[in-house]
Amino acid sequence: MKALLVCTHGKSAKELVASAEMICGKQQNCSSIPFTMGESPDKLMADLESKIQGLDLSDGLLCLTDLKGGTPFNILVKMTQTNPSLEIVTGVNIPMLLEFFIRREQSEMPDLIKQVIEAGHSGIYQYAFLPESGKDEDF
After folding, report:
1. pTM of the model as a whole
2. How far is residue 130's CA from residue 134's CA, in Å, rounded to a whole number?
3. Per residue in 108-138, pLDDT tens?
C-alpha cells in the first residue's frame, strides 16, 4: 500500500488528515508531522526520518506539504538525495488527501500524483450567486 506523509507549518497536517479520515475512515500507512514555531530544521529532519521509517515504503511514498520553498518542503527535497523514490507535492488540501486515500490501491504512483494534483486544483472553487436569475449556482 502506498504511504502518505503530510508535513506542514503548525498543526494543520494532523488536522487535515483527521478531517479526511472523517470522510474516508481511518487510514493505514499514513502519517503527519508538524513543523512548529521555534523548531530547528535539523529537528524536523530527524522527526521526518523517524516517521518515514515507521511507514511501509514498498509501494512508494508521497509527501504532501503546504508551501513550496517552506522548511518542510526544503527538508524533504534534501531527503530525496538519500531516498530518490520519495515524491513531494505542495499545496496540500483535503480533496488531495481524499483522492490519495480513494485511489492509492488502484493507481500507480505517477498516475496517482497527477490525480491528487488535479483533485487539489478542482477543490478550489469560488461560489457565485447568480443575481439575474435569483438562483444559486448548480453544483
Report:
1. 0.92
2. 6
3. 999 999 999 999 999 999 998 888 766 666 6
State residue 134's pLDDT score: 61
SS3 letters across the chain: CCEEEEEEEECHHHHHHHHHHHHHCCCCCEEEEEECCCCCHHHHHHHHHHHHHCCCCCCCEEEEECCCCCHHHHHHHHHCCCCCCEEEEECCCHHHHHHHHHHCCCCCHHHHHHHHHHHHHHCCCCCCEECCCCEECCC
Per-residue pLDDT, 131 = 82
Residues pairing with 62 in the sheet: 4, 87
Q: Which three cell numbers stand for residue 72?
A: 518542510
Range 3-136 classified under CATH 3.40.50.510: yes
